[in-house]
Amino acid sequence: MKFRSIAAADFARIPHRTVPFDWATAVQYDERRTAGQYRPQWTWLAEDGDRVLARAMWWGFGDGEHPLALDYLYVHHSVADPATLVGDLLNAAHETFLAEGAPELPAYHLKLPLNWRADPASVAAVDWRRTAAARAGLSEDNERLRYEWTPADGLPEPPARLDFRPEPDDDVMLSVFRRLTEGSLDTETRRGVTAVGVDAHARADFEFYRDQMPGPREWWRLAYTAGGDLVGLALPSRNASNAVVGYLGVLPEHRGHGYIHDLLAHITRHHAELGASRVVADTDLVNQPMAAAFTRGRYRNIEMRLVFSAPH
Hints:
By secondary structure, the chain is an alpha+beta fold. The protein has helices at about 25-35, 80-100, 120-135, 170-180, 185-195, 200-210, 260-275, 290-295; strands spanning about 1-5, 45-50, 50-60, 70-75, 105-110, 140-150, 165, 220-225, 230-240, 245-250, 280-285, 300-310.
């Protein structure tokens, strides 16, 4: 068995989907390849002679040096033990990514329909993918919900009780990121704080949104009451394809008063005023207050994701 990244001549050999998820169309692949988000060195094959038995495709920002997420996996129906084969394929690619300077193993983002557990074939497909990811060091999993807002859903009311102000001082913003980690229900935040501490995790989040996300730093706002008390942070942003909610949070001393709805309304209206045709957002399945806020804020739950990542 040979594991390798693809060459230009291999583009026509990218296999088609075998389950109703975990795939990209030829058009999507070409668009993202043109944008530098899919690259030959980030697309790997498992070959037996001239047969492609498995394929893994990683995604990254068009101007990024390293892949950020494993997007898609495929295995040929003739493979008796897909978890072992794909685990070995991922390990081969991971070894190369780390040797080339990647700071960590890219997580595997498995996008799924909301009803996937009702389909035995989908359950089986998820099971071997979970095992393969764990074999390749991605042993932690987190279930996340994706939400979508479009203009047809209607705008939320303006958040009249809060004043949203720009804050150009990075140190001030970083201090807010630190405070928002306290009591967070976000799984990655809790894992990160446990692994590296509040300061390091808050800085990593701050630098990710400032330096890697395409949304400009100038969009960030701190929210204050009429009396001047700092309530929280509203951080609209963008990813490579869409406007996104980004990051929002209420400081611990102000939680329980519904301010999360004001922050979300500000972000939604911000994107709408700029002409966004779609705003997407994600939250953990266990973060029910945030999920409820999205529903109240006129967002629709359109899919879920299983995220498999390496332990911190």
